């Protein structure tokens, strides 16, 4: 019997393959809910063609608000015919379509979840110099060429020149710590999750980004070990709590 849900993600050279924080948000949700699915791997330059094969519009527009921007994740549920893009929309679809599975957006918290996620992700900008070169290094050749071209065009510098060194790296790392410290202050001391003992979509989003940082920095790196210990070990504890949902199928 075939699996009804196909989850589209971007491959890498990593043993686990999956790396993107945006796709991990939705993958975590599928794993948490225990909904069967299978992954189909799509290289960066093939994402636009995938959308067009389904006849669905671009998931976003670039900063010029004109150019179509095709992103993953994309989910196709053949049992309903639904094709959903973007992690938040995928999670809302799963909540509605599979109501007997564990909930990620408790009733009455949709706006609060969205606000927290937007605020949290606004604190993730300082990680770009650490992560974009690292992502470029783990992609397959076709995706690497696409990633390099698009990122260098938007930033005006080469991937190699994005990498911070020396005092610049130290200062940039301090900004990352300060930004995560702001998030730590939003939360109740001693609580692992935003709403206390039960994880919600806000926590899955944070964990997806922390997982991404672990990949970018390297699990055995001094920087990852340092980050794990920041703010009374909040980020290391969060990462540990979500290991059970890291299956890639």
UniProtKB/TrEMBL annotation:
Name of one Pfam family that matches: GST_N_2
Q: Which domain of life is it from?
A: Eukaryota
InterPro entries assigned: Glutathione-S-Trfase_C_sf, Glutathione_S-Trfase_N, GST_UstS-like_C, Thioredoxin-like_sf
Q: Which protein, by its recorded name, is this?
A: GST N-terminal domain-containing protein
Domain GST N-terminal per the UniProt entry, residue ranges:
10-102
User: What's this protein's family per the entry?
Assistant: Belongs to the GST superfamily.
Which source organism?
Armillaria gallica (Bulbous honey fungus)
SUPFAM superfamilies documented for this protein = GST C-terminal domain-like (SSF47616), Thioredoxin-like (SSF52833)
